């Protein structure tokens, strides 16, 4: 008789544990979005609840959606054009420096004193502005 009640208690415990475990698991993308200050965290939360009705078929996509955004770099796709422009400017600066060095080398080979020019500083685009 005791074992029947014990088995019934274990069944209830396992059922409640699975119920709450599924709820916690479906909320993981929302927690990631909240931690990363995702701009669409409310939509992720609702989509997580919808994923319960689809038997978590859309849950992996919610995980990807939540992890794509980071507050420090955004979606990661916006800065490509800015980086390309900065790299083009850096290449122009390097080409100018190489031309100056070639002129100095040519003047040394010809034995003429080369005009002294201040080197132009090369700044990298990776440095963050403070």
Automatic annotation (TrEMBL):
Residue ranges crossing the lipid bilayer per the database entry: 6-25, 46-66
Q: Which keywords appear in this protein's UniProt record, sorted alphabetically?
A: Membrane, Transmembrane, Transmembrane helix
Q: Is the keyword Transmembrane assigned to this protein?
A: yes
Top-rank taxon: Bacteria
**Name listed for the protein in its UniProt record:** DUF3302 domain-containing protein
The species this protein belongs to is Shewanella eurypsychrophilus
Upper taxonomic classification of the species? Answer: Bacteria, Pseudomonadati, Pseudomonadota, Gammaproteobacteria, Alteromonadales
